[in-house]
Please model this.
Amino acid sequence: FIKFNFDKLGALSKKNNQRFVNVSTDCKQLMWHKPGAGDYNDMNIADITKVVAGAETEAFQNVKKGLEPEKCFSVISTQRTLDLVASSKAERDTWVKGLTAVVKFGSVLTDDVLEELEDNKAKQVAQAHAKLAVENRKKDRSKLKNLIDKTNKH
Model:
């Protein structure tokens, strides 16, 4: 993406504003950084109030030339607005749809829910191991019974 900035004349800035943007694996942070940079900026997903397709924000509206609105979108939070320009309309639409879903549904992944999911996963694994152990014991008993029966016949 290109992080949107405009110069004093209202044109898209020529500064290197390329950014890598991603959502954290726990769906709690939207993060962006310059290519090759170790430091990143972030925004809490819980603080995002909406994701808007198009050049709708004041910053975009102030641009007089060099802007393709069909590639633009904005992530608006209670703290700040992140204006981005995608490489295509399709890429923009994918991010708008995806981020909107993360904002709507990602917030249900609280620490308690994530912990419960991990606990449930651990319980399922333990239950599977216990079931396997019981089945193996049954097989072992069956083998032992067959061996005893063969021994008694001789």
